[in-house]
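Worked example 2:
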Amino acid sequence: MLHQRRKDLIFLLLQKATLPNYWLKRSQAALFPRAENTRHLHLGCGTKYLSGFINVDANPRTKVDLWLDIRCGLPFASRSVDSIYTAHMLEHLYPYELTRLLRDCFRVLKPGSGLRAVVPNLASAVLAYQERRPEWFHNWPVEHQSWGGKFSNYIFCSGQHRTAFDFEYLSEVLYNAGFRDVQQSSEGHSNIYGELVPSFEPREDLPHSLFVEAFA
């Protein structure tokens, strides 16, 4: 596995490389407003391309609609986006990057529209650690025998994760970014997408992911 410091350098270079796309898209949005009424963003799509969304990612090897590192900002006009979906991406941001992105998400969302965020579930990991559930913890990216190692491996992912979230913490940063209503959700349930909510993982008694929706 590639060392995290090398990954950080690669993504720093990718961030700079995608800047022209940010300015191009921002100029297009200002000069040529889109005629259609709906726009749904999928931030940090990775290998999961969602039909009906503008899929955004910095990895040039994945299928995207917009090649962009979201740390550059969102190149869309204020109050022009109908929804934002992101799964297991926010935890990769440093706190100052997270704050900046969420404020930009709030800016581009239409009043009354929402953001659905899926992140690793800190509360579930703590409970699985306390109850000693070996089957709950993943052996990726590193296999550990100790309980502290299993917990650290899931939460910090060998340095790939910068932040760990429970519902209260993610609510705090969302409210601080301007969102007026934050709700805990779950797999398959959404007040934003209804039955069309993107699926992410099987339903579990102790979910690996935390599902949160926030409204502008």
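Strands lie at 40-43, 54-57, 66-67, 81-87, 109-120, 181-185, 209-215. The two ends are 39 Å apart (CA to CA).
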